[in-house]
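pipeline: protein-struct stage 2 | run 1193 | Ricin B lectin domain-containing protein
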Amino acid sequence: MAFPQRLVPLSLLLLALTLYSVSPHGIVRRKIYVIRSTGPHGLVLDATNPSLLTVQYFTGFKPQLWTFEPGSKPGFYYIINESQGKVLDYNRPASWNLVLANRDNSLHQQWNLDSTGKITNAALSKNIDIWGATFTPGTQVGLWHDGDYPNQKFALEEKS
């Protein structure tokens, strides 16, 4: 599968992560992104079920669209879903599955995007991981120990 032309590697995005754009008329808008696996099939992070996030083929629907706001910890961001207006979190304390939650300003909801494509949680220092390295639509997404795994590599694709 060929990736769209507007796919931005995290390493380049980190040099100048712009969270907002300004239209020619001076209207400020938050930039919207898709979080796309760099593994086979280019699956994207999907929050159709906000209590259990998965990867899916890209549809363009709002559960697959994300914005970023600076977190309280330098270099970390809140990742906000366009459909729900809630932030990326994990199902604490029950599991490390990714979920959407109301923002509580904790480190559990803040994420670092590094130059290798890993997205790391501020509280646990664990990475977003496609469970079992199964690059199949509908596979659950959670947190796992840091490693050089293809199922922990993502890129942001600007959609706005």
